[in-house]
Write a structure and sequence with these properties.
This protein is α/β, with parallel strands linked by helices. It is 43% helix and 25% strand. It is globular and about 55 Å long.
Length: 277
């Protein structure tokens, strides 16, 4: 059986990776005023420049785009695994499920990554590699659910205002965080973004995230890791060098918070995620 792999644009996979692994992409959108953009239509610099002037809105892919993509893939595939950002922060996964019921000739399995960005990309790349090796959907899904047990992600933001405006945190949480100048560490719990710890400085927040990574490394697990930044490439590169010196046995890649996730976290956000190899 031939299995197609689909993900959405918040996995922020490079076009090269998509091409090599035959990954099919469906895009979320950001809107400034009356002008809407698919994520890939804006560079990081363009998006964050616009976002400084006007707070954007985000939207999930239209149901019709899911149906069209799945129908096209059904011509040459028996199964589709569609991997999406957490259902707790977007209706994209639900849209995939809806479309799966409306398309004939192919079995579609929607997979909730329960997070987003390059961590979602970890699932997608693994699924695509297995599909290219001939694995069927059920075998791939077993592996993805095993990955969930060891995948960790923590991130920090400059302030809580973007999360509050985007409906991801309460106004009271954002107000208190702003007054106290807190640089909170956040993570996904039960599919939604919640505070993990309250830290007073950016440097201390990043150090605390490294402590959490160290705990998993100390357990003996071989890890693959990703640094994720919101228009802070130089800082991400410096952090990568520090982490490589501390943990040469771990692969640290650099990715980014693109327009949709950047809308909710704000410019300057920084994250670190990892998974057992």
């Amino acid at each position: 059986m031939k299995t197609a792999i689909v993900t959405d644009s918040t996995s922020y996979l490079s076009t090269e990776t998509q091409k090599i692994l035959d990954i099919h992409m469906i895009s979320l959108q950001v809107t400034f005023g009356m002008e809407s953009f698919k994520e890939a239509e804006l560079t990081q610099e363009e998006f964050y420049r616009k976002a400084r002037e006007e707070f954007p809105k985000t939207s999930q892919p239209p149901l019709g785009e899911f149906i069209e993509l799945y129908s096209e893939l059904s011509a040459q595939h028996d199964e589709i695994i569609s991997i999406h950002l957490s259902s707790g922060i977007s209706g994209t996964y639900a849209g995939s499920q809806q479309a799966a019921e409306l398309v004939d000739g192919v079995k579609v399995y929607a997979f909730d990554s329960e997070l987003t960005c390059s961590l979602q990309g970890f699932y997608t790349v693994k699924a695509a590699e297995m599909a290219q090796a001939g694995a069927d959907a059920q075998t791939i899904l077993v592996e993805l659910n095993e990955m969930k047990k060891t995948l960790r992600a923590y991130f920090m933001v400059e302030d809580l205002n973007h999360l509050q405006r985007g409906g991801r945190l309460s106004s009271a949480q954002a107000l208190v965080g702003g007054i106290l100048q807190i640089k909170p560490i956040l993570y996904f719990e039960d599919k939604v973004i919640v505070p993990f710890e309250k830290i007073r400085t950016r440097k201390k927040a990043m150090s605390r995230i490294v402590e959490l990574l160290h705990a998993d490394i100390k357990s003996g697990d071989q890890l693959q890791a990703t640094i994720i930044h919101a228009n802070r490439l130089e800082e991400a590169q410096q952090w990568q060098e520090q982490l490589k010196e501390m943990y040469p046995q771990v692969d640290f890649e650099i990715s980014f918070f693109g327009p949709v996730i950047g809308t909710h976290l704000g410019e300057g956000a920084m994250g670190l995620g990892w998974v057992k190899k």
